[in-house]
Amino acid sequence: MKVIIIGGGAAGMSAASRVRRLLPESEIKVFEESGYVSYAPCGVPYYVEGLVPNLDDLVTYTPEFFRSERKIDVHIHSQAISVDVGASEVRAIVDGNETIEKYDYLVFATGALPIVPNESWLNSTRVFTIRHLEDGEKVRLYSKEVSDVAIIGAGYIGVEMAEAMSGIGKRVTIFEMKRVMPVLDQELSGLVKGEMEKAGVAVKEGFRVDSLEDNGKKVVISNGKESFSFDAAILAVGVKPNVELAKKAGIRLGQHGGIDVNNNMLTSVKNVYAAGDNVEVNDLVLQGRKRYVPLAPEANKEGYVAGSNIGGKAIEFPGSVGAAVTKFNGLEIGTVGINEEEAKQLGLDYYPVKIQHNVRASYYPPKGGLTMKVLFEKRTKVPIGAQIVGEQIWGRLVALSLGIQYKLTAEQLFYAGIPYAPPFAPVWDSTIVASRIFYEKI
């Protein structure tokens, strides 16, 4: 049996490795357009900052490892250009030559693309996007020559790149048409904005970049009323599913523009699977909806599920609650589920609990705190969203993520076995306190 996988990132190599384990005699080919497979693009900001010294440190396994140890025929700098699902064929450019490959099973693992408001902006050598490891290398090299850097977009990538650039001594201005970390509600977003400004980052909220021009010396950014000049600009507006190849092949897309898959990661075409940042999956917060979740943990699991089903082991990917975490300097930022803005738009009957709380026993140094906001649905009494900003938030976010995914009520969360010791948490942990407040009120 022959399996072709388009894309060698987290989902693609997870699928390939799973097929190899279950079907040791199968033929597996992977086409990857960049120069790396099994890499960690999430680490690019930390490479740019110099916290990760070498680009190869962001690579889990090399193409040579997959070829020699797992007998997976990996082709880097190769691009699939068309798919004929009727003939079960992939046309690809491999080593500069066009080839046609037959398949028994196909996996689309093409990932996501950076959103670029105007493609002409990329004509400038001073303008960068972040997708592949090579993009990180370009930014790191060019950053040595610049002083003023603009970052367009204040989501996860924008905030992380602002941290990286300010960390290496650059003057940074971040432009965001909504607010810093728009996935957060306003009051928690303001905490992140304050931390960024404290670090010397200029924050321009409510600023829609209408034009970006290279005048030969600088990048000029304007909203039609104000203009600013910079040595370089990084586009971090967000990402979208990379589905053009699948769309042309007749694969059905979903409501968010990603590839529509079932719980086995099977597309609308027999023997064709998809996994990673190009798909949309079940929303485990609110049933009956789909969610676009371009996150590495989901991509790895989706690839594993796709490969398992191809290999004859029927398993399902249930969906996602979209738990995500990042930081800016010492301020940790986490979200899961939906925010209050979305809950209002959906007309949900919910109750928000917001607390400021210690992260350790009050007498144990150093003092540290967090701000937590949890949305509980009144009828079911289960959490549907949470946001945390502060210190030591990861464990609290995990607890709330599990609470949302498995529909634990406020009472169940209150009685959950959350461990205590003065260096790690107060005896009444913030998750328990938030649950108690809702339990007592509602």
Descriptive report:
- The chain is an alpha/beta fold.
- It folds into three domains: 139 residues, 3-Layer(bba) Sandwich (FAD/NAD(P)-binding domain); 122 residues, 3-Layer(bba) Sandwich (FAD/NAD(P)-binding domain), CATH 3.50.50.60; 118 residues, FAD/NAD(P)-binding domain, CATH 3.50.50.60.
- The protein has twelve helices and 26 strands.
- Strands 3-2-1-7-19 form a five-stranded parallel sheet. It has a five-stranded parallel sheet with strand order 9-16-10-11-12, covered by helices on one side. Strands 22-23-26-25-24 form a five-stranded antiparallel sheet, sandwiched between helices.
- Helix 1 runs parallel beside helix 8.
- The chain is globular and about 65 Å long.
- It starts with a strand and ends with a helix.
- The relative contact order is 0.12.
- The mean pLDDT is 97.
